[in-house]
Amino acid sequence: MALEIGQYVTAMYKTGKYIGEIVQIRENKALINILAVLKHPMQGDLHHPKQADVPFFQQRKALAFTEKTWAPIHTVKPYSGEVPDYTSSLKAALETELKKLSEENSEWAKRSIHELEQLKKDYHI
User: Fold this and answer.
1) This prediction's pTM
2) Which of 55, 77, 71 is nearest to 15 (CA)?
3) What is d(CA 85, CA 64) in angstroms, rounded to the nearest whole number?
4) How far apart are CA 18 and CA 12, in angstroms?
5) Is the dihedral of CA 47, 52, 55, 58 positive or negative?
């Protein structure tokens, strides 16, 4: 199925997954207007995933409601369901990530939980 401007899609951006609307298409990427969060981004250094002992352990926020981002076209897939409320979807994605991390016993997971708990306050959810 060909992608079209105005179409609802899922898209990956770094380590997060989102529902959005296509605003523009170029040969290898699509500009997506973010409407909901399906998977909260991983915390830490993307170049050293799941490692706590890195020079800079980065806190990664989810993309904001109506924020626009260029997503690699190979990660953009048609979406046909109802688009959930952004805040509810962000809360669900964050809780899923926290639950997954709580089952892992590593320094990276502990640092990630700490960062996500801080983000939870920043998000006001």
Assistant:
1) 0.91
2) 71
3) 12
4) 6
5) positive
Number of domains in the chain: 1
Range of the domain at 88: 8-123
| Cα–Cα distances in angstroms (integers) from residue 57 to residues 45, 65, 78, in the given order | 6, 25, 33
Q: Which of 30, 28, 24, 33 lies closest to 5 in space, CA to CA?
A: 24
pLDDT in tens, 46-68: 778 788 888 788 899 999 999 99
| 78 Cβ contact list (under 8 Å, min separation 6) | 1, 3, 7, 8, 9
Q: Is residue 1 part of a domain?
A: no
When pLDDT is cut at 50, 70 and 90, the band that residue 1 belongs to is low
Task: Measure the CA–CA gap between 9 and 18, rounded to whole angstroms.
Answer: 8
Q: Tell the residue number behind the tokens 């529902």, with chain if given.
A: 19
Both tokens assigned to 98: 């926290």
Q: What is the CATH number of the domain that holds 55?
A: 2.30.30.430
